[in-house]
Write a structure and sequence with these properties.
Number of helices of chain B: 0
Radius of gyration of chain A: 13 Å
Largest interface: A-B, 21 and 24 residues
Structural class of chain B: mainly beta
Oligomer: heterodimer
Number of strands of chain A: 11
Number of strands of chain B: 11
Shape of chain B: globular
Distance between the termini of chain B: 36 Å
Radius of gyration of chain B: 13 Å
Helix content of chain A: under 10%
Shape of chain A: globular
Strand content of chain A: over 45%
Largest sheet of chain B: 7 strands, mixed
Strand content of chain B: over 45%
Structural class of chain A: mainly beta
Chain lengths: 116, 106
């Protein structure tokens, strides 16, 4: 079964750093683009960025460029989304998703709460 | 950046009705257009890709059409499980989502 399993919910304070993960299984992880999508409470879907694990080519939405870093580790079939200094406005659900003629496989989401 | 605009924002319909959702792109995306369904507390689910191809396991009552800048998603006969939020997304130039259309029970 093809699946993406994300790390658990996080509660952080403003200014802290964070790295969340997404582990793929059931398919060749290196051959598909892997995207991150943000959903703020009660709001719609926003594309954050995408990585091709085969060569780590990465692209970011203009809205998120410089705000987050996306990386991948082929050896563990995992992708990561990280922040160096969280803000309250980063509070949201973050999904990882595989791109294959649309985003066909989604993780369950990681809730990130940033509050003092 | 390509802007995707969905209409209407909310649609109140009765089970069994036929409904059409619209999505417009600010520039041509060819047929690189997908539709997703999201229910409360769940991750989005891919319904349609390449503007008109149903994803695996998607019921035949869902159909997509369009190309270029104008797209539609039609549900031929709404079932209770279809009440959800629907998003369109272009993937011709990286990715952009529409703001969503909420289908609610009338």
């Amino acid at each position: 079964e093809v699946q993406l399993v994300q790390s658990g919910a996080e509660v952080k304070k403003p200014g802290e750093s964070l790295k969340i993960s997404c582990k793929g299984s059931g398919y060749n992880f290196t051959n598909y683009w892997l995207a991150w999508v943000r959903q703020m409470p009660g709001k719609g879907l926003e594309w954050v960025g995408v990585i091709y694990p085969g060569d780590s080519e990465t692209r970011y939405s203009p809205s998120f460029q410089g705000q987050v870093t996306i990386s991948a580790d082929k050896s563990s079939s995992s992708a990561y989304l990280q922040w160096s200094s969280l803000q309250a406005s980063d509070t949201a659900m973050y999904y990882c998703t595989r791109h294959h003629f649309g985003m066909d496989v989604w993780g369950h989401g990681t809730t990130v709460t940033v509050s003092s | 950046e390509i802007v995707m605009t969905q209409s209407p924002a909310t649609l109140s319909v009765s089970p069994g009705e036929r409904v059409t959702l619209s999505c417009r792109a600010s520039q041509s995306v060819s047929n690189s257009l997908a539709w997703y369904q999201q229910k409360p507390g769940q991750a989005p689910r891919l319904l349609i890709y390449s503007a008109s191809t149903r994803a695996t396991g998607v019921p035949a009552r869902f159909s997509g059409s369009g190309s270029g800048t104008e797209f539609t998603l039609t549900v031929s006969s709404l079932q209770s499980e279809d009440f959800a939020v629907y998003y369109c997304q272009q993937y011709n130039n990286w990715y952009t989502f529409g703001q969503g259309t909420k289908l609610e029970i009338k």
